[in-house]
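R.M. (postdoc): so does anyone remember the format we settled on? I'll just put the structure tokens first.
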């Protein structure tokens, strides 16, 4: 009697180990710890050993996730910015009035730049010890990302005929410069506290008013 043909061996499947969720949890813990340590001690003062201890992981784990301290710093800036100014904030809503969307973006931006983390980072970037590479990483992870997203938003609203923007990038920079004003500089220098909610809202509305006076399209003049 002939032997039955043997079944081909099934390919081995990798065991669904629990490593990936733990990796994501460790990454989040490292970023949370890095935000606290950079805010408290500055870039030079915070060591990878301290960040690892604060996160409850090994220093090797920190390096395996982020490579070096500068890369970790850049990622903390990106994460803080994204948490307060997520990408969907800049999605043009054709059903929402332009003014309302501008005010929403302005509130989120003002909340971001006056947060303890942002003010500490601003002071760090202005200090003599900050190198060009660190400043560039900060710029790319924070302000540049925000300006680029806002410029895309403005271009979309201009395409709907709501804004007249000869230079979209310049208009985006001007909007954020108006929001910062001298208030942000005085706060960063420790010369004043954050204004009360009514004062913040008045500042935001005045900024939006000025921006729209400069760039909102005007209705066509009536025929003579």
């Amino acid at each position: 009697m002939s032997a039955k043909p043997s079944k081909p061996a099934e390919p081995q499947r990798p065991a669904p180990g629990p490593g990936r969720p733990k990796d994501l949890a460790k990454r989040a813990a490292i970023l949370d710890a890095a935000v606290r340590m950079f805010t408290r001690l500055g870039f030079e003062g915070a060591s990878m050993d301290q960040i690892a201890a604060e996160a409850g992981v090994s220093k090797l784990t920190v390096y395996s996730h982020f490579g070096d301290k500068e890369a970790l710093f850049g990622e903390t800036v990106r994460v803080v910015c994204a948490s307060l100014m997520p990408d969907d904030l800049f999605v043009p809503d054709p059903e929402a009035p332009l003014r309302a969307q501008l005010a929403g973006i302005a509130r989120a931006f003002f909340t971001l730049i006056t947060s303890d983390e942002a003010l500490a980072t601003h002071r760090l970037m202005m200090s003599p010890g900050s190198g060009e590479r660190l400043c560039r990483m900060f710029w790319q992870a924070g302000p540049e990302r925000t300006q680029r997203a806002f410029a895309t938003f403005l271009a979309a609203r201009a395409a709907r005929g709501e804004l007249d923007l000869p230079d979209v990038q310049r208009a985006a920079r001007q909007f954020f410069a108006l929001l910062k004003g001298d208030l942000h500089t005085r706060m960063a220098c420790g010369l004043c506290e954050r204004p009360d909610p009514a004062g913040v809202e008045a500042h935001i509305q005045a900024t939006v008013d000025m921006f729209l006076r400069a760039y909102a399209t005007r209705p066509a003049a009536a025929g003579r």
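R.M.: ...and that's the designed sequence above, right after the tokens. Also worth knowing: DSSP finds ten helices and no strands in the chain. The domain at 82-215 is CATH 1.10.357.10 (Tetracycline Repressor; domain 2).
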